[in-house]
Amino acid sequence: MDEIKCRQTYIVTDEQLQNKPEHILKHLKTRNCNQIVIKQAINCFNTEIEKLKKLDHSQCKVAQIIESFEEQQEFYIVSEFIIGQNLNTEIKTNNPWNEEQVIDLLQQVLEILKYIHQEDVKHFNIKPSNLVKQSSDGKIFLIDFGGVNEISTLSFNNQTQIVSKQPVGTKGYMPPEQEKGLPLYSNCDLYALGMTAIQALTGVSPDEIKKNPQTNKVVWPNKSQINQKLTQILDKMVHADFRERYQSADEVLKDLSQIRAMPRTKNIEKVLLILPNILFVIVIIFLVWDKDREKHNVISPRDPKLDQAISQSFPPTILQPSPITTIKPSQAALSDEELNNTDIRIAGSNSMARIKAIIKNSFEKKYKKSRIVLVPGSSGEGINAVEKSDADIAASSRPLTTEEQNKNSLVSEPIADDRLVFVTGINNPYEKGFSQNEIRKILVCNITNWSAFGGAKKTIRVIMKPLDSGTTTSVKDIVLNGENFCHQPSFKILPKDNDTQLLVPELGTDGIGYASSLNIANHQTVTVQRIDGYKWNDKNYPYIRKLFFVYKSPFSPKVEAFRKYLKSPEVQEEIKNITNVTEP
Hints:
This protein is α+β, with helices and mostly antiparallel strands. Helix content is about 35%, strand content about 20%. It has four domains: about 5-255, Transferase(Phosphotransferase), domain 1 (Orthogonal Bundle); about 275-310, no CATH class; about 335-415 and about 550-575, D-Maltodextrin-Binding Protein, domain 2 (3-Layer(aba) Sandwich); about 420-545, 3-Layer(aba) Sandwich (D-Maltodextrin-Binding Protein, domain 2). Strands 12, 13, 14, 15, 16, 17, 18, 19 and 20 form a nine-stranded mixed sheet that branches. The chain has a four-stranded antiparallel sheet with strand order 1-2-4-3.
C-alpha cells in the first residue's frame, strides 16, 4: 500500500451545526490486516491523539483535534480548519524573504514548539505546507502532526512488536537520524524549522541545497550576504549531529532575542569605524585654515569642543565581556530569626540528590519554621530556574559556562568532590574493569562489542543521561577530553536526568552507563567497574569532578544567609562523610 493511499485528507462540513463550519478530516490506514497488529496500532494511535487533545490551545497556535475514531480497522481524525494560506504560497523558489520576515517566522513557530515539547509532543514533519498563516491576524498555526500519521507506516513482527517505522517527515527537511529511522528527539523539529527558514532566506528548495558528503553539513547558498548571527543560529539548528544541535526551542529563542537590535548596532559600528577618518579630515582642515590665519597675523581662540574631538581621534576600542571573577556586593544576610521563617528553593542536578537531602534535613532541623523545597532536574534546568528567579539556588554537577556568568550574572561555588563511575548490570558477567582509553573507545564507537574484552559476543549498548545533564557534560569534558559521543542505534539517551531509577533497568546484560558515585556506587543491582585498576573510592581514581551550588549575583539576603550556614563546620562535615574516599 503506497503512502498516498495510506493517508488521505478532506475538507468536510458539519451539517448538524447552524453555521455549518468546515473541518479537516484525515483518513489513515495501516499496512497490516492482522487483528493483533491492528489492536497494537489502535493503542499507538490513541496515545498520540490523547497527547494532542491535552494541549492548551490558549498557549499555542496548533490546529485543535475535535474528534477521532477507528472504524473497520481504519483511523479518522477530525481537526480544526484554519482559515488562511499555508506558507507554500509565500516561500517560493527564487523569491527570498528578508531577515526580519524569517526571524518573525522563527519566533512564532519556536514559541509553539517550546510549549508542545514541554508537553511531550513532537511534530516530526515541519515544512512550509504544514505552517498556515491565519487570514484574520497573520498568526502562524502548526498543522498535520507527523506522530499521528506514523500509524500508517508501522510494521510488526509475529510477537506484535513494532519492528520498523518509515520516516513520516519530508525529505530535505528531515534531519539525518530521522531519514535513517533512528530514535528521535524533540530537536528534530528544530532541524526541520531551520531548513524551512533557510529555504525562505535563500529562495532555494531544501532538495536543491547541497550537503557536505563527509560531514552531512548543510552548505546553503548566499550565506555571506546574511546577518552573521542569524547564519550561526540556523547552522546550529540544522547541525547533522543531534547532540551538537540546539537542544530546546527556548535556547534558540534566547539567541534570536539578541539579534533583534543587531541591524541598528551594525550601523553604529560602521559610524564608529569611519569616525576617526572624519575627525582626521576635520583636524587637517582646521590646521590648514589656522596656518592661513597665522599668515595674516590673525589669532584664533581655541575651541574646547574641537580640542576634545582632536583628543578622541583614534580608533574605537570594542570591549569584549570577561568572566565574572568577583562577586557583586550583596545585601546584609538575614538574621537567624528571619531565616527561621523563610523558604528556600533549590533546583537542579539529580546527581546531588544526597547532598541536597542532607542539607535539607540539617537546615530544617536547625530552623524548624523554615523549609527547603527540592526541585529535581538536570544541572541545566536548575541553572535556568535561577536565571528566571524560579529558584534561589541551582545544584549543578558542571561548572558554569562563560556565557552563563556574563549574561546572567551567575556565580558558582564548589560544594564537594564527586566521582564519575561506569556501571554494568548485575547480570552482566563482565567485571574486569576498563582502562581510561578503553572507556573512551567505547564512547566514540571504536570498540562496540563485549568480545573485545573477552566477554560475550554482544553489542555494547551505551546508556546515556540527557544531553543537558551535568554528568553528560562532565563525561564529555573529563573522559573524552571534549570529543563527542558517537551516534549509533546502540546508544540510548534517557528521557530524564535520574541516576538510578531509569538507568539500572536499561543496563540488562549488555549495557554500560555512567552516573554519580554519590547516588549509585552502593546500589545492589549494578557492578561499578574499576578504571585503570582503581575502585571508585580509591584516592587515585581518575574521574573526579566538582559539584557546585549556583546563585545569582548580587546575592539576596536569603541566599547570603544560606551560604553562611552552608560553610558551618557541622554541615561541611556531613557533606564530607558521604564521599567515602579511602587511601589506595
